[in-house]
Each structure stands twice: as structure tokens, then as C-alpha cells.
Amino acid sequence: MTYLQNHTILSSGDLDEVRESIKNLAARHDLDVKGRQADFHARVAAVERDDINLMHVTFGNARLSVESSEEDDDGLLLYLVTSGTGVAQHCGEDLEFSANAGFMRDLAVPVSATEDDFGAVVLRLSKNKLKNHARSLVGDDVDLKGLRFNPVIDPATPGWNVFRHTVDYVAHNLDGPLRDVQNPFITTQMKDMLFTQCLSLLPNSYQDVMNGRAVTEIVPYYVKRARDHIHAHAHKKLGLADIAAAAGCGYRGLQKGFMDAYGKPPIAYLRTVRLKRVRTILKTELNGKTVAEVARQWGFSHMGRFAKDYQREFGELPSETIRKYV
């Protein structure tokens, strides 16, 4: 199957041209050919519709070395390998991948790889947008931690073939029947299907929640004390020293405990609790108060920063919440 054949943007054996093309579409990758330069010939195809960003890349019969530094705290690149093999060092692990497998690159972490005869469909994703999609499905009351995916997805992983077929379906339609159709409702429907299956079928830290299974992680006692203190005193002025004193441990231990348990440091956890309290009020009981008054009540003094944090957490502005629920 030739992916996105009507969206080919580059077919070239010029390594510098290929580097520049991929950098502009996904992330900077320092590519080098190991062996005969004549064996290298790249084809790059890409299509973008709203939050769907798909590419297909092939590099001929060449062996490549790939180096890429950290690029973007929010970005993920999911490679659905269509040909060849590779080995990579990523997220502190030595990884191997082959045709029909998946490789999830976290753009916040550098990667070093060697690839042979490599080709892949590449789906660019946003951690924040995936998190907001998960929240829209499971509700605001579920405590969603930092989103982490397994770097390598084995072809035998349950659900992987279903997800691959969905990507094939989306790529086929964007390249064919829907190539000239600009319909945001259809695009949103395809995006929702991709996001839901990505979170539900691929191994990640949200998968149990997305599939209705209880998450049974053991949280250290001192983290529980700190967490309970935050929930009980979120309306008061709280700093890291206050939280650490309530937990009965040092700053570093508390920071690590929260990162392990909730994927964020205690002050960020406190901010999330406060944002949820504000959202509850905006949805149910404004009682004549303004958004600014409610925000200040819960410790947010800078309205511009508050609005950005709120939108990042819930995928909408405070004013949109009010219009939707009040």
C-alpha cells in the first residue's frame, strides 16, 4: 500500500533536502547514511487536517543513523513501521522495532537510532490534547496523571491491529474520497476515533482508566498525607514548605513521590485541585460572582495565566464552561 500518494511533498536522494523537509513537518532529525549513498532515496508525504497530522516516510534500501534532541514537552510521534527494522536508545532504554510494530517517540526526550530499509506512517500527537480528550470521556473527577506511553508496541499487543487499521482508514480517506472535502464535523469524528483508540488500545498510563478498570497503585503514606492536606487546605495560601511539613518529609522526597504517583510535582498538583474547584463553581454555583472573583478565591491572581492553565487542563476557556453549563 502506498500511503498518501496524492500528498507526496518530496522524493529525493538529497540528504540535506530530506533533513529540512522532515524538520519542518515533525521535528529536527540529524540523518546520516551509513554505507552507500546511492541506496538512499526518500519519499515524504504529509497531510494535516485540524488535529490530524499524518506523514509517511521511506528511505530506500539505506542504513541510516538518526539523532534527535529534545524538541517539545507536549509532542509525541507515533511511528507505525511499514518496512525495515531499527534499534534505538530512548527514555533510558535500548529498544528494537520492526515492520508492523509501533514506536512512540516522546519529543521531550532525545533519541538515537539506527534504521535499515526503514519506512513508517507517522502520527503526530499532543499530550495535552490527548489528556483533554480523555477527560471529556471519563469526566473531571478522575485524577489523570502525566500521560506516558510504552515506547515500543509489539505487533502482538491486543488492539494494535485495530488501531493500525483505523490509521489506514483515515489515511485512505484523506488521500482519496475526502481529499477535497473540508468538513470539520467529519474531521472531528475521525480525530475522536484516533484519540479514543490511541488511549484505549495502546499501552499507556491512562489505559486502565479509559477501559473502566480500577487503577491500583500503592501511594506512599507521606504522599497521601500531603495529598490530603492539599485537598483540605486548597483554599488557603500553601507553599511547598507547608505541604512538606504536613507530609513529614523533605522537599526532594516529596517532589519524587508526587512525580511517581501523579506525574506532577506537589505545587502543580495543588494548582490542578484549585482549577477543578473553580470549574465546579463555574458549572453550578456562580451566584452572581465573576470569573475573576472565583479565580482569586482559589488563589489565582494573574487572570491571563489562570485562563491559559484552565484551558490547558480542561480544553476550554472559563467563559466557554459557563456558556456550556449555566
TrEMBL record:
Matches recorded under Pfam families? AraC_binding_2 (PF14525), HTH_18 (PF12833)
Q: Return the SUPFAM superfamilies for the record.
A: Homeodomain-like
Could you tell me the superkingdom of the organism this chain comes from?
Bacteria
SMART domains documented for this protein: HTH_ARAC (SM00342)
The alphabetical list of record keywords is:
DNA-binding, Transcription, Transcription regulation
Q: Name one GO molecular function term.
A: sequence-specific DNA binding
**Name listed for the protein in its UniProt record:** AraC family transcriptional regulator
Give the organism, scientific name. Answer: Thalassospira povalilytica
